[in-house]
Design a protein that fits this description.
- The complex is a heterodimer of chains A (309) and B (213).
- Chain A is mostly helical and 309 residues long.
- Chain A is built from eleven helices and no strands.
- Chain A has a domain at 63-167.
- Helices cover 76% and strands 0% of the residues of chain A.
- In chain A, helix 5 (113-135) runs antiparallel to helix 6.
- The mean pLDDT of chain A is 93.
- Chain B has a single domain (4-204), classed as 3-Layer(aba) Sandwich (Glycerol-3-phosphate (1)-acyltransferase).
- Chain B has helices at 4-22, 48-55, 71-74, 78-88, 106-113, 138-145, 159-162, 189-204, and strands at 24-27, 38-42, 65-70, 91-93, 117-120, 151-157, 175-179.
- A seven-stranded mixed sheet of chain B has the order 1-7-6-2-5-3-4, sandwiched between helices.
- The mean pLDDT of chain B is 90.
- The chains are: A mainly alpha (309), B alpha/beta (213).
Amino acid sequence: MNFHPHALWALAGIFGILILATPTAHLIEKRRQLPTAGELTLRVRSWWIMVSLFSAAVLLGATVTTWLLGFISFLALKEYLSLIPTRRSDRRVLFWAYLTIPLQYYWAAIGWYGMFIIFIPVYALLVISARKVLIGETEDFLRSMGTIHWGLMMTVFSISHAAFLLALPEDVAPAGGVGLLIYLVLLTELNDVAQYVWGKRLGKRKVVPRVSPGKTWGGLIGGCATTLVVSLASAPFLTPLNPIEAVGAGLIIGLSGFLGDVVISAVKRDIGIKDSGSLLPGHGGILDRVDSLTFTAPLFFHYLYYLYY
Amino acid sequence: MKDWPKLLFFTCIVRPLVLIILGLNVRHRQHLPATGPAIVVANHNSHLDTLVLMSLFPLAQLRRLRPVAAADYFMANPLLAWFATRVIGIIPIERKNHEGHHDPLAPVQAALNQGDIIIIFPEGTRGQPERMQKFKSGIIHLAKAHDTIPISPVFLHGLGKSLPKGEGLLVPFFCDVFVGPALYWQGDRTRLMQQLEQQMEALASEQGHAAWD
């Protein structure tokens, strides 16, 4: 496979950010005089692992990357289903819910757009309802169907849009589907970090104090501005977007990334937990990491799809 | 080299199953015994419990790990008996103690004497998924006879959802494994029993768990 130099440069840039972030995290924690490796160091360490896995998959090609994204969906769905109240009578329905993952990512891998776009919203919705009614338990029927299907939409359908980027026609974007995927993931995650950092630096007024008391207007605006700048700088190399469209993409990712983050926060608050899991030291669970991607992946995909494909 | 079926089964099947399909959320792993002899005590919800507990230890300890299991269930037919004793390495014991019969825990005592790590489920049965039952007192006899051996309580949650009693279909869930500090026999049976139950309750309440019924 001929790997596009732009994509390679982008990956190198991401590692560059990590190389700068590592001593910075140490310095900040040293200044606060923490005795052991604090949360910030743990978080950067987890970033190294995540970025390395993602880069390795991307370098190995579209098939491996699709497998990795499918596996992320599996982890996210499993984490979600482990957190929500479920019933023993749901076990068979949950099993079918897991089976949608390989199918959905297969549709993405072969680029069958028609099936990809209706499989979970239509077929999975109907099959899950039908499978559930055949079990015959009517108590909490609506609640369990609703929660299971919502989970599938967020963790499988939404995230699989990132995989479909790889199946789009190669010659439209300057660095192919891989470039689009790197652009989406880089901007989404950078936006998360930027909103967090700006939120720490400035801003007192909370955006949604009852859901996520840490989120300030300063953080949201500063984060979106940062994302906008990075979008403008990287779009010509990784995407077919012109500068005005790149501003649109930056805003979509900045704002919707924030929304994805607080939506998962609201779910966790509803359940009564702080972190969705312990898979990623310093971050929490996998849902804590891909929360913004559940919003940015489908929105960026359809924005791009409408404009260019 | 008679350990190879056990080693093969745990490296190729159990570890991928436990770490990738299920996924563990282990807390206070440092409380686990580093070497035998030791006793690991856990609540029991699923056949997976044993496999998960055995996966917590390094492969080098694998041949030392001996789950205590019911002879009436696991020795019921020759194939299962071969699998249970040779591949998992269980110590089969009689659940019903017949009148005048020898000590049912004798093989467990022998294993402890040769430095094995015993895994025991004092509830005696898997029972209703994710409902803890009262601990039986067999564990007291072991503790009393081996008063220098650490007893590590482990609270498991989620495996009863993945593979409850009477189900053949495995459904993946993240599982919680919370390990408590080791307890020792201090000359009083009610005290040890209380300590064990209190520890299990404390571990269970470390995190709220989603409803399951």
